[in-house]
Design brief:
This is Protein-glucosylgalactosylhydroxylysine glucosidase. By secondary structure, the protein is an alpha+beta fold. It is built from 16 helices and 30 strands. The strands form 7 sheets. Strands 1-9-10-11-12-18-16-15-14 form a 9-stranded antiparallel beta sheet. Strands 19-24-25-26-29 form a 5-stranded antiparallel beta sheet.
Length: about 700
């Protein structure tokens, strides 16, 4: 799909950004770095105790830059190709081209690699030398590194982090092998072209790091190391894509957001390591003092997760498994505050214990616990994966969250309902408030979901779950017909970020169109203009629900203030402050298209759709939507909607699907290899009815 020139998935420039934080990132689910940065990070490897815990800085052997000092007439180009997950730097003269390619291997997650290729022009014969500049030193402020014996030509260091996250806890071990980098490379006069490959392998054991390095060497020797990485990315894009006929900047933003988010998820199949979640700045960021120290927030569960779930439920499951593994830490958090069940930390690292440096957030921003469970709910209804809940710990987590909410509520004799007191809502400009409407609504949703799962599993539903869900206060102003943010909120008070508007989406809290509109109009003008990037996406989704497409677009256009050139790195705040490579903002932006333009909503029994998009978009294609084991492709124009099953459900227990139109009730069976089409309308996808 094209509108304007250039491939929307390839970002090129002649000069690099002056701010190194805005460099492209090369990341897989286990390793990550910013281009030309002298450190890399490893998933789950943190150093420091409690609020001081941060991603451990590992010295980066791939921080290398080509140079040809004194050369004249040298053209330079830098490119991030999001289709291949590869960063490249080209030096071009009349006599030669030198190309540097860098990548974190998507499927062989313990490997990062770069290559240098020198190719001479036909008329030249002299040797060509390219310098390799690096500041790499095998030392770290976070690891006690020791030198081991060389292995298959690679240097070897290993060591543990210095300080455990919790007293008496483990200090993760890092083992690293890397190909030594010479100060220069020369193409001899008798050769036309030559490539050199440089590998870095990182793992938590000597056995794994040697296995990974050997595997990389074998692929490099066969000339297929980079091509195997490119193939993995091609398969990734084949399984999921959002593209549209519309403005080039919008298409570029979508490819950029998808690239950075997909870079963070585990590869399909058994990846051979435990996934430790996604932090706001991703694995490339999170050193001490930057990007929230690499901690995991609600950003993962609320802002990134729905996009991953709709395309790659296996990766979404890994995100939930991270929360299950940290359940005991969450139980400890609840006990420490005097409550039952499990309270997930506002900031999480390896253990699930609270690691937020500032106590107020960990103590009061408790909506995180409901946000985590909402991700489990969306997963359950999209996949019907009962194994995660029955056998793999999901049900224990659900029950522990329900128990927490019941213990956190107090009965108000005066109002004859349950209150949740002393919290900080998503709007962090306010704290120690009672009955945050978002917090209470997400708690209610947690309890309703817990009861639904119990019924599905024929488990007795505790009466207190039903009672607390039914009687928790969800503030509402009957006179003005809107939701106050909390008890005592005065209309016009400044709000930091999307808060009440989240009731409509993603919470889907029951309300009329009038109330939905009133909430949007009440909070839009008083929301901090320079606040976090994900905010305006949620206002856009709200206006799209109401078919106010131009108002939606005016909100979504604000997001472009957070996208930096040339590599489409997002900053948290439009003034450049906050986290960089802000995956949270990218996740919100993707949801505005993936759930906003399409109207997708995940419900207990269906995947609903109700498309709406603005005048400058003529066609939207969403490829690879996963629902109950099937893969679907949606093609939407202003006149027509087309749905195709590209991959049928592999699970013999999964039923075939049908599309149902809301107004007419018309049903269309969805069969592999066949597409159905109908005039633009609202409806839903569900299991094929046998009635």
């Amino acid at each position: 799909m094209a509108d304007g020139e250039g491939d929307p998935a390839v970002f090129s420039c002649r000069s690099l950004p002056s701010d190194p934080r805005l460099m492209a990132t090369v990341t897989n689910a286990y390793l990550g770095t910013r281009v030309y940065r002298d450190i890399l990070h490893v998933s789950g490897v943190y150093n420091g105790a409690a609020g001081d815990t941060h991603r451990a800085d590992v010295p980066s052997p791939v921080s290398v830059r080509m140079a040809v000092p004194g050369a004249h007439g040298l053209a330079e180009a830098f490119t991030l190709n999001t289709r291949t997950g590869t960063f490249s730097h080209v030096l071009q003269s009349a006599d030669y081209a030198a190309t540097h390619q860098l990548y974190a291997h998507h499927s062989l997650v313990h490997l990062m690699a770069f290559s240098i290729t020198i190719q001479r022009s036909p008329h030249t014969t002299q040797p060509i030398t390219v310098q390799l500049q690096t500041s790499f030193v095998p030392k770290s402020q976070d690891l006690e590194l020791k030198r081991g014996p060389d292995f298959q030509g690679a240097h070897y260091v290993y060591g543990r982090t210095l300080v455990p996250e919790v007293e008496g806890g483990p200090c993760p071990t890092v083992h690293m092998l890397w190909t030594p980098v010479p100060p220069a490379l020369t193409l001899p006069e008798e050769e036309q072209e030559r490539s050199w490959e440089f590998l870095t392998a990182v793992a938590e054991s000597e056995e794994e790091v040697k296995r990974s390095y050997s595997q990389g060497l074998a692929l490099a020797a066969a000339g297929s190391l980079h091509s195997s990485h490119v193939h993995a990315w091609a398969a990734l894009w084949q399984g999921c894509c959002i593209d549209l006929e519309g403005p080039l900047p919008l298409r570029q933003a979508l490819y950029g957001c998808l690239y950075y988010l997909l870079s963070s998820i585990p590869p399909q199949g058994d990846s051979g390591f435990l996934f430790h979640g996604i932090s706001p700045g991703g694995l490339s960021n999170g050193t001490q003092g930057e990007d929230y120290w690499g901690h995991v927030f609600w950003d993962q569960d609320t802002w990134m997760f729905p996009n991953v779930l709709l395309f790659y439920p296996g990766a979404a499951r890994a995100m939930l498994e991270y929360r299950i593994r940290t359940l005991e830490g969450a139980r400890r958090n609840a006990r420490d505050q005097g409550y039952q069940g499990a309270k997930f930390p506002w900031e999480s690292a390896a253990t699930g214990r609270e690691v937020c440096p500032e106590e107020i957030y960990g103590a009061q921003e408790i909506h995180i616990t409901g946000d985590v469970l909402m991700a489990f709910e969306q997963y359950y209804y999209t996949t019907q994966d009962q194994k995660l809940f029955r056998e793999d710990g999901g049900w224990k987590l659900v029950g522990a969250v329900a128990q927490y909410w019941c213990s956190r509520m107090v009965w108000s004799e005066q109002e004859q309902c349950y209150h949740i007191k002393g919290v900080m809502p998503p709007d962090e400009y306010h704290h120690q408030v009672d009955n945050s409407v978002y917090t209470n609504a997400v708690a209610q949703r947690s309890l309703n979901f817990a009861a639904d799962v119990a019924r599905d599993f024929s488990v007795p539903v505790p009466e207190e779950w039903v009672e607390h869900a039914k009687k928790v206060k969800v503030p509402f102003d009957e006179e003005r017909k809107y939701h106050p943010e909390y008890d005592g909120y005065s209309p016009g008070e400044l709000v930091k970020q999307a808060d009440v508007v989240l009731l409509g989406y993603p919470l889907m809290h029951p309300m009329s169109s009038e109330v939905r509109r009133n909430d949007l109009e009440m909070y839009e003008p008083v929301t901090e203009l320079a606040g976090p990037a994900m905010t305006w996406s949620m206002f856009a989704v709200g206006w799209l629900e109401l078919k106010e497409v131009q108002r939606a677009q005016s909100q979504l256009s604000k997001c472009f203030n957070n996208i930096t050139e040339p590599f489409k790195i997002w900053v948290e705040n439009s003034d450049g402050t906050g986290a960089v490579n802000f995956l949270t903002g990218m996740g919100g932006f993707l949801q505005a298209v993936l759930f906003g333009y399409t109207g997708f909503r995940i419900t207990r029994c269906s995947l609903r759709f109700n498309p709406a998009f603005p005048e400058d978009i003529n066609k939207l294609e969403v490829t690879g939507v996963s629902y109950l084991g099937n893969k679907l492709k949606f093609t939407i124009t202003k006149e027509e909607m087309r749905i195709e099953v590209t991959v049928p459900a592999q699970d013999p227990l999964a039923s075939p699907l049908e599309a149902v139109l809301q107004e007419s009730g018309q049903r269309f069976p969805l069969c592999e290899g066949q597409s159905i089409s109908f005039p633009m309308a609202a409806g839903w996808i569900q299991r094929l009815s046998t009635e």
